TrEMBL record:
Annotated compartments: Golgi apparatus, trans-Golgi network
Family under the similarity heading: Belongs to the VPS52 family.
SUPFAM superfamilies, sorted: Cullin repeat-like
Domain spans labelled Vps52 coiled-coil: 89-262
MF (Gene Ontology): syntaxin binding
BP-aspect Gene Ontology terms: endocytic recycling; Golgi to vacuole transport; protein transport; retrograde transport, endosome to Golgi
Species: Durio zibethinus
Keyword Protein transport: yes
Keywords: Golgi apparatus, Protein transport, Transport
Domain Vps52 C-terminal: 279-560
Listed name of the protein: Vacuolar protein sorting-associated protein 52 A isoform X2
GO CC term, one of those recorded: cytosol
InterPro entries: Cullin_repeat-like_dom_sf, Vps52, Vps52_C, Vps52_CC
Predominant place of localization: Golgi
Phylogenetic classification of the source organism: Eukaryota, Viridiplantae, Streptophyta, Embryophyta, Tracheophyta
Amino acid sequence: MSDVAENNATHPNETPKNVFDFGAFVGDLIVEEDASSDDISLEGLQQELEECKNDDVVANILSKGIKLREYTKGVENNLRQVELDSIQDYIKESDNLVSLHDQIRDCDSILSQMETLLSGFQVEIGSISSDIKILQEKSMDMGLKLKNRKVAESKLAKFVEDIIVPPRMVDIIVDGEVNDEYLRTLDILSKKLKFVEVDPMVKASKALKDVQPELEKLRQKAVSKVFDFIVQKLQALRKPKTNIQILQQNVLLKYKYVISFLKEHSKEVYNEVRAAYIDTMNKVLSAHFRAYIQALEKLQLDIATSNDMIGVETRSTSLFSRGREPLKNRSAVFALGERLNILKEIDQPALIPHIAEASSLKYPYEVLFRSLHKLLMDTATSEYLFCDEFFGEESVFYEIFAGPFAVIDEHFNSILPNCYDAIGLMLMIRIIHQHQLIMSRRRIPCLDSYLDKVNISLWPRFKMIFDMHLSSLRNANFKLLWEDDIHPHYVMRRYAEFTASLIHLNVEYGDGQLELNMERLRMAVDDLLMKLAKMFSKPKLQIVFLINNYDMTIAVLKEELLVEHFSDLIKFVKTRASEDPNASSERPITVAEVEPLVKDFASRWKAAIELMHKDVITSFSNFLCGMEILRAALTQLLLYYTRLSDFIKRIDGGTALNKDLVSISSIMYEIRKYSRTF
C-alpha cells in the first residue's frame, strides 16, 4: 500500500490520493491456494468490484490499504465476539425467557379454552337464530290475527253504535225542547234509521228485531214534535207587521234540518209542512202586494187620455171639455224631460207610499211601475233563495208566487187598457229590460217568464197608441187646426218633442221596428204641415211658416241631445246664470257651487260630444239632417258654456277656476272638426 502511496506522490497530475485505484489493487491481489481452490471461481469479480466502486464503506477500507483477507478475518473475529456476547446476554436473561415461555404457554391454554367457549356460543347462537325465526313467524301470524280481530271489533262496535238506542237520545227526542242539541240528536236518529233500512245484513240480524220497534216509536215521536214546532213558527209569518225576511233568515233557516228529516223519514208530514208554508206565504205576500198597489194607485199622476194625440185639435168644442187643461200646455204628454231620470234610478229602493202621500207627491205611472217591480224583484229574490235553501225545491217558489203574480196581473190588466201615454209605455219597456239585466246579474231566474210576459204585453199597447198618434195626423182636419199665425204650430212641437223622446229612448237599443214607425210618423206630419202651409194665401208666408216649424223641430231635437249629456250645466245656466252673484240674496252663488260643474265639463266634454255624434249617426236615417242637428246642438252648447264662463268671472274668487275652464277656442275647434264630416 505504501508503494501505491509513493507512486501516487511521484505522479501529482494523476489520480488524487483519496481516490482508490481498483486496477492497482487488483494487480497486487495474490490468491493463495487452499484445499478448496479448485471450487473458487473469480469470474465476475471485476464486475462486482466496479459495482462496489461507489460504496463508501468498501472504498474506505481499500483506501487504507488493508488486505481483504485481513479485513475479512477482522470482521469474522468481531462477529464471533458479538455472538459470544449475545450468548452471555441470553444466559443472563434465561430466567426471564423461561418465565416468558411459561406465560405464553398459559396464554395459549387460555386462548384454547376461549376458542372452545366461543365455538359453543356459535352453536348456541345458531340455535337461537332458528328460534327467533320461529318466533318471528308466530309473531306475524299473531299480528294478522290481531288485525283481523281489530277489524271485526271495529265493525262490531260500529254496528252496535249504529243500532243501539242510548237512553239519553230517547230522553231528548221524547222530552227535550227543539234546539241545537235536539237537532244533533235528530241527525243521529236519522242515521240510525237509514242504517237499519239500507243495509241488507242489518235487516237479517237478530239485534234489529229488538231495536226496530223502539226506533219506529222514536221516529213517530220526532216527526210529531218537529211538525208542531215548524207549524208554530209558520204561524208567526201571518202576524201583522212581521218582517218576513228576518224571520226566515234568523229562525226558520236555523231549523232547516227539520225539513230534511221530514223529507227523508215522513214524506206525508213533509208535504203537509210544505203545503202549510206555501199557503201561508201565498196569502201573506198577496196581501202585501195588494195593499202596496192600492197605496201606489193614490200616488198616480194621469198624463194622457185617449184625446191626447199629436194631431188632435186643442180648442174646446163642448161645455164638458171646457174645464180641461189645454193640451198644448201639457208638455209631459210628448216630452221626455225629467221622466228620463227613472232609468237612472232603476235600482233605487221602492217608494214608501205613506211618506209620498204625506208629502202630497204624485208620480207618472212609470215611476209606480218601477217601484212595484223593484219590490217584486227584491221579494222574489229573497224568497227564491230561501225556498232553495230551506226546501231544496224551486217549485215551492212558483207555487207561492202564483198569488202575488195574480194580484199584480189584475192591477196591470186594469191599468194597461186605459194607458194612452206612449212615452210612459216606452219607459216601462226599458224598465223591464233593465230589470231583466238586474235579475241576470243576480243569477236569479225565477222572474224570467213573468218579465217576458209583461214585456210582451207592453209592446202591443205601445204600438196601438203609436198608431193612434199616426192616425190623428193622417185624419186631422187641417182646417180646424189652422191658425193664421206663421209661428211654429203646436202640432209640430208635439211631434218634435215626441220624436226626440223616442229617439232618446231608442239610442242604446237600436230597435229597427220603432225607427220604421217613426219614419211613418214623419211622413204623416210632413203631409199635414204642407196642408197647413197651403192655407196661407201668400207663398212667402207659406215658406216662412214651414221654415219656422222645421227650425223649431231642429231646436227641440238639439236641446234633447244636449240635455242627455249636459243637463246640470244647462239647468244652472237657465236658472242661475242671469243672477248677480255679488248681490245680497238669501243664497248667494259661491265658487264651491260652480266648481263641480266646471270640473265635470272639463273631464268629459270631448267624450260626451263623441257620444252625441254616435247617437246622431244611429238615430237619423238622413245623415245630413242628423249632422245639421248635431252642429246646431254643439253651437248651442258653446253658447251655454260661454254664459257659464262669463258668469264665473263675476263670482268672488272665480279666478281660481280658470285652470279648469275649457277655452272657447278649443270647443270651437271641436265643433269645426265635426262640421267637416259633412
